[in-house]
Amino acid sequence: MTALDWPGFGQVTLAGLLFLCVAAALAGAVDAVVGGGGLIQLPALLLVGPGGQPLYALATNKVAAVVGTASAVGAYARQTTIDWASAIPMAVAAFAGATGGAAFAGALEPGVLNGVVLVALVGVGLYTWRKPDLGVAETPRFGRVAQVCVMAAGGAVVGFYDGLAGPGTGAFLVFLLVGLVGFAFLRASATAKIVNVATNLGALLYFVPTGKVLWGLGLVLAVCNLGGAVFGARLAVRRGSAFVRRVFLTVVVALVVSLGWKAAVG
Fold first, then answer.
1. What proportion of the chain, given as a percentage, has pLDDT over 90?
2. Among 152, 205, 238, 246, which has the highest number of CB atoms less than 10 A from its own CB?
C-alpha cells in the first residue's frame, strides 16, 4: 500500500495509521489502569511506524503518551483523592531522571537492559502474586518526610529508565508505590500517572530539539491515546484496587513474555 505523503507522518501507510490508532487507544486504556501501555504502542510504532527507526518511534511515542497520561490524571483527580504534596516532588525528580535517560537513549544497544528488566519484572510479579492482600488497603510504611524522599528517589530512578527505554515504567512505578511505600493499588495507579506525565514530558523535551518527533503522527495517536486513557481511568476507579491488581499482574506477565521472547530470538 502507498505511503501517506503527509508532513510529519514518516511515510506511514493508511493501513498502518489505522493499526497505530487502534494500538494507541488500547495502550491508553491499559496505561491508565496500571501502566504498561508502552508494551502496546511502542512496538506498534516500531513495526509500522517511521521506517523502523527506533529513535523516531521512541520520540513520537512520547507525544501520545504525554497527552494520554495527562488525561488519565484528570480523570483520576475528578473521581478519587490524590496526595499532590507527595506526588509532585516525585514527578519533578522523575522529570529530571527521564531527561537524563533520553540523552543516553541513542547510545544504548537495544538488548542491554532487557536482561535486568526481565529479572526485575519476574521478581515483581512473583512478589505481588504471593501476597494477595498487597495493595488492597493503605499500609503506610514511612513518616511523611521519609515517604516524600523515598518517592522522589524512586521517581528519579524509574524516570531515568523511562527516558532510556520505557516498557514497564508504569508497572515499576505502581509496584514502588504499593510494595515499598504502602499505597493501595488504586491510589498508586493515580499517583503513577502524575509521575508518568513528568517522565514522558522530560523525555519529549529532550527529543524535540533533535528533530526526531513526527508531530503529525504523534498528535493523531495522542487523540486516540486520550480516549483510551479516560476510559481506562474511569474503569479503574469504578472497579477498585482488586481489579487494578489483576490488571497489574496481567501486564507484568505480558512484559515478561515480551522481553523473554526478545532475549530468545535476539
1. 24
2. 152
Q: What torsion, rounded to 10 degrees, do the Cα atoms 68, 93, 213, 251 define? A: -50
Name which of 55, 102, 65 is nearest 203 in CA terms: 102
Per-residue burial over 66-92, b = 16 or more CB atoms within 10 Å of its CB, e = otherwise: bbbbbbbbebbeeeeebeeebbbebbb
What the block records as the C-alpha cell of 8 is 510529519
Nearest residue to 44 (alpha-carbon basis) of 65, 67, 66: 65
CA 146/CA 26 separation, integer angstroms: 36
The closest alpha carbon to 153, from 119, 182, 117, 195, belongs to: 195
DSSP-assigned letter for residue 212:
-
| Cell numbers standing for residue 50 | 517511521
Give the start-end residues of each E strand in 102-232: none
Tens digit of each residue's pLDDT (9 = 90 or more) over 10-60: 778 888 889 999 989 998 998 888 777 777 887 788 777 665 567 788 888
Contact 111, 165 (CB under 8 A): no
- This model's pTM is above 0.85: no
Q: How far apart are CA 238 and CA 231, in angstroms?
A: 11
Bridge partners, 3 (sequence order): 13
From residue 159, give the alpha-carbon distance in Å to each of 51, 100, 141, 171, 193: 27, 9, 22, 12, 12
Q: What is the pLDDT of residues 209-265, one digit of tens each?
A: 888 888 998 899 999 999 999 998 889 888 888 888 888 888 888 877 876 776 677
**Cβ–Cβ < 8 Å for 218, 60:** yes
